[in-house]
Write a structure and sequence with these properties.
By secondary structure, the protein is mainly α. It has helices spanning 9-31, 38-61, 73-96, 113-137, 165-180, 184-213, 215-223, and strands at residues 66-69, 146-148. The longest helix is centred in the last third of the chain and has 30 residues, at 184-213. Bound molecules: S-adenosyl-L-homocysteine (SAH).
Length: 232
């Protein structure tokens, strides 16, 4: 059995605590549903859909025996930033909106209705790309930057066209979030954090893949674009 399959007790406790906190916040969100607008409900759909797509891959990934890991401090901070700005903070915003505990309300902005509609429409290509990239990567997917003992280089499915379809999907999700949740902290902030994560990850991930797969990865990069397909 891999070391990763046996999680230390503290990890399990942290996981359970996180689940309990999330359930409590979600209950508060539904309790506060009168204060929540249609576009914020669309964001909730995006958040739940995304979590549902990812969950089975997260469980599968626990079986992996990690051989290379680039999970240093900056990367950990970025992942924490994504967890906060894409999950916890918007959920707290929705749970406390227009209540006495409304701590983010001062940072609201207004957008015309059509902007919210564009945000809502973006979640369809997001779901497709997010699901497709997870299912094409299968056991090769990981939330952290890492390689496991049975890692293969995926060059088929959506990976035939672009090297980072999941990051393309996340670009759609973070822009949609700013169009659906009209608040600089709960809605817009995730764009800034994802930009930092994207810029730092792309270099490291490609270097890690090149170190692992050598010339196969070089050939693959020549045939594909980063997040948009290569036209020539
Ligand atoms: N950057 C990709 C994958 C994100 S998940 C995308 O945006 O779609 C990150 C993990 O996926 C990395 O730790 C790496 O191990 C793995 N990975 C990335 N590209 C891969 C590929 N073409 N084949 C196999 N694994 C890959």
């Amino acid at each position: 059995m891999s070391e990763n399959a046996v999680k230390p007790m503290s990890e399990k406790l942290k996981g359970m605590a996180a689940v309990i906190v999330m359930i409590a916040i979600m209950a508060a969100v539904f309790w506060n549903s009168d204060a929540i607008s249609w576009h914020e409900f669309v964001w909730l759909g995006l958040f739940f859909g995304m979590s549902l797509i990812r969950a089975p891959f997260g469980m599968q990934n626990r079986q992996n025996k990690v051989t290379v890991s680039e999970n240093h401090l900056w990367e950990k901070l970025l992942l924490l930033g994504m967890f906060l700005s894409m999950g916890l903070v918007p959920l707290i915003y929705l749970a406390t909106k227009q209540t006495n505990a409304d701590i983010f309300g001062f940072a609201d902005y207004t957008l015309p209705d059509f902007a919210s509609w564009i945000g809502a429409a973006m979640i369809l290509p997001f779901f497709y790309l997010f699901w497709r990239s997870h299912s094409d990567l299968g056991r090769n997917w990981s939330a952290k930057l890492e390689i496991h003992s049975e890692q293969t280089l995926v060059t088929n499915g959506i990976y035939k066209f672009v090297r980072h379809p999941m990051y393309l999907a996340l670009w759609l999700a973070v822009i949609a979030q700013a169009l659906l949740i009209h608040n600089w902290i709960a809605g817009f902030m995730v764009i800034v954090i994802f930009l930092a994560m994207y810029l730092s990850r792309i270099q490291q991930e490609e270097a890690m893949m090149r170190a692992q797969f050598g010339s196969d990865y070089d050939v693959y990069t020549k045939q594909t674009g980063r997040i948009l397909p290569k036209l020539f």
